[in-house]
Design a protein that fits this description.
Elements lengths: L10 E3 L6 E3 L16 H12 L1
Antiparallel strand pairs: 1-2
């Protein structure tokens, strides 16, 4: 596989903070399911849903 530039990688917006984040190798198989840019944002979203 050819190397890709970071600017060519797909991006999404985080549902909690609204910041853009880029594809990571560890998300390769589950990219469609990724919604948050970090564990912190994922935890914060859960707290907001419970309140």
């Amino acid at each position: 596989m050819k190397m890709r530039r970071k600017s060519d990688l797909p991006t999404k917006l985080c549902l909690t903070c609204g910041r853009p984040f880029t594809w990571r190798k560890k998300w390769e198989k589950v990219w469609d399911e990724v919604r948050y840019c970090s564990d912190r944002c994922r935890r914060e979203k859960r707290r907001a849903d419970q309140a």
